[in-house]
Sequence to fold (307 residues):
Amino acid sequence: MSEKHSHRGIRTRAIHAGEGPDPTTRASAPNLVMSTTFVIDDAEANFSARALTPESPFAYTRWGNPTVRQLERKLADLEGGEAAVAFASGMAATIALFLHLLKTGDHLVVSDVAYAGVSELVTDTVRKLGIGVSFVDTSDLDELRGALRTNTRLVHVETPANPILRLTDIRAAAEIAHQAGAQLCVDSTFATPVATRPLELGAEYVIHSLTKYLCGHGDALGGAVVGRMGPMEALRQDTGIHMGGVISPFNAWLIMRGMATLPLRMAAHAEGALRVARFLEQHPAVTRVIYPGLESHPQYALARRQM
Ligand SMILES: Cc1ncc(COP(=O)(O)O)c(C=O)c1O
Fold:
């Protein structure tokens, strides 16, 4: 979380974090900068991604863009991270992180329930690269502990998991992963930073499909990884810049505009969802309702603590 915003509540940060007046026009709302290229004054400029630092001037939008940068700063602030890298979709963010961290011979542990695209990606594409994959019920900490090997580099959990809303205890999963020398990544798309901040609970990486609650209007695909500054700059170079699956500035602008109302929308979603869940729970035609906000959910206590 940036110091400038640390004393502000999440509703204020959702609006203002990462943004600032345009240095030329003094426009206070984020400008949409669609330019692919930027004028570089330095004749000695080094056009290698390896020379890029967070302070480098903008050169080319695949490397960095003023509108995208504001979205990344807002995301990092809301998640309590140091930096974020935005991608064209949640899937692009997920495969970028996997390809960045894993190589042939490594081992990946994944929630056995996850968004179908992620399950298929891991089964088909990641395995094809010679990376071992174990699917684990990560809500069962003993099962998680038992799945870790000496070559496990990453544990990837989705909490709440799409579509059955099963939770994983992030703090405990982080401890287990770290004891085995692995890192923890949390797909927090369903929770959003309004409900859960995985980095504060010990995870190294948070992944979002920005397409969902963060955008909130169903009109822009996007994805992001949030974490510490050094790893995020390495991720940007290796995957954003070299693999090229970056977000369009227009989508970044739309998502940032949506994020201003994220805390208000999440409060309304939670209130509405609980009302529907309670209604269904007492309905004679319904045999089972799965919603972690209901006292009858087996992970209700974890939901209260973590969400
Ligand atoms: C939990 C979760 N992660 C990742 C994704 C993939 O995101 P995108 O559709 O933005 O590629 C989805 C999409 O539904 C999702 O629900």
